[in-house]
Amino acid sequence: MIQIYDLNAIQDQEIFLRRDEVRDVSAPVADIIRTVREQGDRALYEYARRFDGAELSDLSVTGAELEAALEQVEPEFLAVLREAADNIRAYHAKQKRESFVMTQRDGVILGQRILPLARVGIYVPGGTAAYPSTVLMNAIPAQIAGVEDIVMVTPPGRDGAVSPAILAAAQVAGVTQIFKCGGAQAIAALAYGTETIPQVDKIVGPGNAYVAEAKKQVFGQVNIDMIAGPSEVLVLADGASNASWVAADLLSQAEHDRMASAVLVTDSRALAEQVAQELEVQLSRLEREDIARESIERNGKIIVARSLEEGIQVANRIAPEHLELCMDQPFDYLSQIRNAGSVFLGRYDPEPMGDYFAGPNHTLPTMGTARFYSPLSVDDFIKRSQFSYYTREALERDCRKVGLFARREGLTAHARAVEIRFEGKEGAQ
After folding, report:
1. Are strands 202-204 and 119-123 parallel, antiparallel or unpaired?
2. Cα–Cα distance, 419 to 246 (Å, whole number)
3. Which residues pair with 383 in a beta bridge?
């Protein structure tokens, strides 16, 4: 059963403490990466046999497989996928940046160019569940940014096939290439390229400990989005909240995996006790009861604060991935929130709305990194290039200033590169 604490009896660092052993997978991941670099496709086929139990004849998802997937997905779900994609696309379109040019100083032109990355890789987990939402959330911002080649990798099933829902989502989201490959080996393939899988400029998407470690190890060869930890939610609820609703919101994160963390902070002891009881009732009804129960018992907490304001202070200190403000006037508190990946306002905006349908991205910073990281966005799929232009007259105006600056740093050649243009008759041209 979930534990109830008084806020003054628990340390901030304990609120999202995961009570499980942390496995060091750096050595086996390094071995996998090295093998993929050396053996290419041959290593990927072998790892598919070893880890996925799949005998593959081709790493690529074919056009026939894509067509079959659309036929296999029920029309109602396909319609929902498309509507969700529209919502995600509309939200992320507002994030698109524009290039600019500055001409405020005579003879000087300055500017910035916004350029899309040429090719990005999207990792979509397999395993205990299929996540078409991950496809939408990662591919659509890349498409809006202008990325021309969106490469998706995802583990195959034992039959060598990929979930039809994932393939349908990939088509809705504009993915250009799909490969049957998962785990650290897929990350290595995207980072370095193989005979079949092309090298990319950036890798995004969640995964298990091996995937996360692989992303960490290839960073620098390619860019990555972030190293995401287990999912977490902090629900801040007042005493008027519906206990069954709050319990359901907590369980929506707990069922992700055994390491997920679901925490309630409330100013009501009565609500705390009601939610604790309701969790036990609802747990027994879940298909993933074992996972959710372990998550709740290991990492779940209910914390009683003296006020909602005190709860907000806690939220800002621990910077949760998901933050729910379950109260009648949530906008009164929104300006006080400084650190949170995504904020869900009011009694009718549970966290799963953000996972699937509302429009904001569900790839979020975890484990306190919302203090300095942001949700995945269009910005993750662009790069900025800058330029400048000086006329002779403009350079002459600033020549002495730049020379003085350079010499102050002991860089005489820097100064000379500017000053030489105005020495002798040559400088008059």
Report:
1. parallel
2. 69
3. 115
Q: What is the pTM of this model?
A: 0.93
Q: How far does CA 169 lie from the centroid of its chain?
A: 18
Assess if residue 303 is contained within a domain.
Answer: yes
User: From the CB of residue 202, how many other CB atoms can be counted at a distance below 10 Å?
Assistant: 21
Number of domains in the chain: 3
Give the pLDDT score at 18.
66
Q: Is 414 a catalytic residue?
A: no
Q: Which domain holds residue 267?
A: 229-372
The answer on 326 and 201 residing in a single domain is: no
Based on the domain organization, do 177 and 308 belong to the same domain? no
Domain containing 213 — which CATH number? 3.40.50.1980
Catalytic residue flag (residue 322): yes
Write the DSSP string, 323-388. Answer: EEEESS-THHHHTT--S-SEEEESTT--THHHHHTSSS------TTGGGT-----GGGGEEEEEEE
What's the rounded Cα separation, in Å, for the pair 44 and 194?
9
DSSP 192-209: H--SSSPP-SEEE----H
Are 302 and 264 in contact by the 8 Å Cβ rule? The answer is yes
Copy the structure tokens of residue 61. Answer: 């998802």
207: amino acid identity, one letter:
G
Element at 356 (helix H, strand E): helix 352-356
388-424 in b/e form (b: 16+ CB < 10 A) is eebeeeeeeeebeeebeebeeeeeeeebeebbeeeee
Spot the catalytic one: 92, 256, 322, 362: 322
Whether 188 and 261 share a structural domain: no
Contact (Cβ atoms closer than 8 angstroms) between residue 325 and residue 345:
yes
> Of residues 321, 324, 351, 362, which has the active-site annotation?
321
pLDDT recorded at residue 340: 97
Ranges of the chain with pLDDT below 70: 18-22, 127-129, 425-429
Same domain, yes or no: 69 and 124 = yes
Which of 171, 196, 224 is the last residue in one of the domains?
224
Gyration radius (Cα) of the chain, Å? 26
